[in-house]
Amino acid sequence: MLRAAVCCCLSSLAGIGTIAATFVSRSGPVLKKGWHTSSEGRGRLLLNMFSENIYINTNFKNKFDSSDLNADSAPVPQKKTTTHESCHRFSKVLLTSFTVYFLLLTTLFSVALISLFKKYSQLLEEKALIKELNYTKLECRKQHSFLKDKVWNCCPKDWKPFSSYCYFTATDSASWSESEEKCSSMGAHLMVIHSQEEQDFITKILDPKAAYYIGLSDPGHRQWRWVDQTPYNESATFWHPGEPSSDNEQCVIINHPYSGWGWADSLCSGKQKSVCQMKKICV
Length: 283
Known about the structure:
The protein is of the alpha+beta class. It is 50% helix and 19% strand.
């Protein structure tokens, strides 16, 4: 509103000034020639003055409107800048999200690949071990599988199958370390027991009058360890009452001295029988 009022005032002043200037510049000769006595001359003079005034006002207004339009359109680049900044911000967020997703996917793929590689390496080791052992005879049972190829679980002759393992009872007596070496030469290790089912199975095929080494020992400070490095779980142990009884007895036997089978600590140098354990052979 204020701008429009200023525009009108300036336009009027300019028009008045133009009329005055034109009147002064042109009235002299007319007055000298009797301007007050010629109505036709006066009319022509006024028409010329108003025409020039309209032309000047029109030019002034066009210039003012053009400058005003330019002034009003100046902030437009600011809108473009704001839009550009928003697009740039969105691009950064999108790029960050894509990077995080890619890193997560890469990590999961790496973990899966490592796990697969470990299983494959274990399978190769088992196959290599089977080739080295050269068992003369295997006793096999068909395993139910959804795979196209038939899978057979086998144990060497004179070994007893149970769950996923084969068990062999050594009849000759030896120390704990010698017994473990003998099991190892057959691709096995001294028996590891983690459940009541395993305990019940093995005791059914053992001689109650003999004692047998199992794969549990104490390297020091009563820290019992299994030979296959599986955790020792105190809630799944089968010690005789009062056992273990001596810090000097660092190996473990399974025997049936009185009312039932159980574990007892023993000197590792003692001569005892033993039980070997190995995974079933898949063919």
